[in-house]
Design brief:
This protein is mainly beta.
């Protein structure tokens, strides 16, 4: 069977926060079979098999293509085997398409952290019984999304300066999330490789660890700290600081996405052929 539509909606109850996804373009080549539907003498439940040889869908947020199979044995949520690609995705709308198994704190962080940039591309795999999603036990199934972005933007936490111009790779695998970036800048400072990890997307208290480095002019670094939430921990002491030279900072931020007051920041600062002055008014 072939389906083509310029306006289509798919409903996924219990899967997404907004269960209805609308598409301005939708086409599919599929077939299905139903077993035991008319066999009234059989005690076996009605079972459904759906084969999707090819499916394409797009709207203003994203464009995807996929193929696979879904089987519903008449009970539970059924078993799926899907492979697909995201041809484009608007990063500021990406959180709308994350399943509810990705906790609300994580979805909120991605909503606020991912800035407008060129569209992301991605590949995804979903294999296994849906009642076991996201498959903490890898023997039960596979859930994987790998996304790439060029010249991406990121706001790591509320109040922090924006990161721009990075090459980013994001990976959802089972119940874990990781995003790695190369290049980019935070204001006038150069970023080294940065990695952010959420070890358990289903945790009651979601923890995000960000590790990376900054380098650049010492005074620019002081100004960046002065404009960040670090001043809540160290006070306004940086307002009286002056520096010259080049500096390097190795930074580790542990964010509690449920309660920012439980977050921690650790750093190691190095200054190359520089001078430092602290002159309180």
């Amino acid at each position: 069977m072939t389906i083509q539509s310029r306006q289509a909606s798919l409903v996924f109850p219990g899967i997404f926060e907004n269960p209805t996804l609308g598409f301005s373009g939708f086409s599919a080549d599929l077939s299905w079979s139903v077993r035991h539907l008319l066999d009234h003498q059989s005690a076996a439940p009605v079972a459904l098999s759906l084969d999707v040889r090819h499916l394409e869908a797009d709207n203003e947020d994203a464009a995807i293509t996929l193929s696979g199979r879904y089987e519903w044995p008449g009970k539970s949520m059924g078993t799926v085997a899907l492979n697909g690609r995201v041809l484009r995705a608007d990063p500021v709308r990406l959180h709308r398409y994350l399943p509810l198994a990705v906790g609300p704190d994580t979805r909120a962080w991605l909503r606020d952290a991912l800035a407008a940039s060129r569209p992301y591309t991605a590949m995804f795999e979903l294999h296994g019984p849906l009642e076991d999603f996201p498959f903490r036990d890898p023997a039960r199934g596979r859930f994987l999304v790998e996304a790439q972005a060029e010249s991406a933007g990121l706001v790591p936490a509320p109040g922090w300066p924006a990161i721009s111009g990075v090459r980013a790779q994001a990976r959802f695998e089972r119940h874990q999330f990781r995003i790695s970036t190369k290049g980019g800048r935070m204001g006038d400072l150069q970023l080294s490789d940065v990695e952010a990890r959420i070890p358990d997307l289903e945790a009651t208290q979601t923890a995000l660890r960000i590790e990376g480095g900054l380098s650049g002019d010492f005074q620019r670094f002081i100004d960046t700290v002065a404009g960040s939430p670090l001043t809540e921990a160290i006070g306004d002491v940086v307002g009286d600081m002056r520096g010259k030279g080049q500096t390097n900072l190795d930074l580790v931020i542990d964010l509690d996405l449920d309660d920012s007051s439980r977050s921690r920041v650790q750093g190691r600062l190095g200054i190359v052929r520089g001078t430092f002055l602290h002159a309180p008014a």
